[in-house]
Write a structure and sequence with these properties.
Elements (H helix, E strand, L loop, with lengths): L2 H11 L6 E7 L9 H9 L1 H5 L1 E7 L3 H9 L5 E4 L1 H9 L5 E6 L6 E5 L14 E4 L6 H11 L9 E4 L3 H9 L5 E4 L1 H9 L4 E4 L11 E5 H6 L1 H20 L1 H11 L10 H25 L13 H10 L19 H5 L4 H10 L9
Parallel strand pairs: 1-2, 1-3, 6-7, 6-8
Antiparallel strand pairs: 3-10, 4-10, 5-8, 5-9
Protein name: Myristoyl transferase
Keywords: Transferase
GO molecular function, one term: transferase activity
Length: 358
């Protein structure tokens, strides 16, 4: 049975069974091809097969997502590691990482042909960031402090939104730098703006994007958390196997996210560039967290980033990093308990096209 037929049969078998609704907040309002572990389970029915109707909600930043989760507005949140740590250390919120998705790939992009050659040259300048509620703000402030710049006095950090709006702010001189994650910086370069990327090279050795939830949610519904991560792991493996297939499925299932402004071949390459940039950080996270189980979250991986935040005065105390991660015996093994070869073969053949309309 082909993957398409298997998908259809699975859906039909569950048509009369009520699906449990689950909501996930993502700290970005641009739900494009760069989030395959969250978007592909919807398109390919991985979560529906597990019995869940999942809604991915784009919000202004990781901090807003955390606030929504803390107030009961969403069940899980995709947030930056800095926000996960701050939630526990500074806010007393028992948030737990349940899936590792990336390393810190934020960077400060400036015009390649412009006068800014180093962080020092940004003194007195304006720096744009997607939102003042994003987890990238602590990273930017720390980067500035490391280079002798007071982020409160020596620069002006402003929210510029995402996509074309942010790029236009740089092109017009409203800001002299853009602090964004790598796939966003790649999108700016796709649009024809050559950038010099300034960042701390040690960031790539620290965890960042993490899927998390509250300890209370884990206690109340551990099966749901396990199923959500398992579906996301399937999608991760699918994406790593065949990025171009992911691009095709994403465009079919979420047509409003398809880029515009160029011919189809160029648009296809642009989105593939974005996805490959994201896959690079996903693979780095996989290796950072042990390189054995998809989505595994290693508490020890957070030691360096917590020390970084503490030394940069972003947090006033530290905790045992074991407290940042889900503790449920066999959890990560269970979230990897699926037929990996079947997913790989399905991705290689890209024989699931049309299933999103089933």
């Amino acid at each position: 049975m082909s993957a398409t037929l298997a998908f259809s049969a699975s859906v039909k078998a569950q048509e009369n069974e009520p699906l449990q609704e689950v909501s996930i907040a993502l700290g970005s309002q641009v739900l494009n091809v760069t989030y395959p572990w969250l978007m592909m389970p919807v398109a390919l029915g991985y979560w529906r097969d597990e019995g869940y109707d999942v809604n991915v909600v784009g919000v202004q930043g990781s901090l807003q997502g955390l606030q929504m989760m803390a107030s009961g507005g969403v069940d899980l949140v995709q947030f930056n590691s800095s926000v996960l740590i701050q939630a526990n250390v500074e806010n007393g919120i028992s948030a737990r990482g349940v899936m590792g998705n990336g390393v810190i790939d934020w960077g400060l992009g400036v015009k390649e042909d412009g006068p800014i050659q180093s962080i020092d040259d940004l003194k007195g300048k304006r720096i744009g960031i997607v939102s003042l509620a994003t987890g990238g703000v602590p990273m930017l402030r720390a980067l500035l402090r490391q280079n002798g710049i007071d982020p409160d006095r020596d620069v002006n950090i402003v929210a510029v939104g995402a996509g074309t709006q942010a790029l236009q702010a740089l092109r017009s001189g409203q800001v002299q730098g853009l602090m964004f994650w790598q796939s966003a910086l790649t999108s700016f370069e796709n649009a024809g703006t050559e950038l010099r990327i300034l960042r701390d090279p040690e960031w790539r050795e620290m965890p960042d994007f993490t899927l998390g939830t509250l300890q209370s949610t884990i206690d109340e519904d551990p099966e749901m958390i396990e199923a959500i991560v398992r579906g996301a792991n399937k999608a991760t493996l699918f994406a790593m196997t065949n990025p171009e297939c992911v691009r095709r499925i994403h465009w079919e299932h979420f047509p409003s996210t398809k880029p515009t402004g160029a011919d189809t071949e160029t648009l296809e390459q642009w989105d593939l560039n974005l996805l490959n940039a994201q896959l690079d950080t996903m693979r780095s996270a996989y290796e950072l967290h042990g390189g054995e189980l998809l989505g595994y979250v290693d508490p020890d991986a957070f030691v360096g980033i917590q020390e970084f935040l503490y030394d940069s005065e972003m947090i006033g105390d530290t905790i045992d990093t074991d407290e940042l991660v889900i503790h449920r015996e066999g959890f990560f093994e269970a979230t990897n308990d699926f037929d990996h070869e079947e997913i790989i073969e399905s991705a290689k053949n890209c024989d699931v096209m049309g299933s999103s309309q089933s």
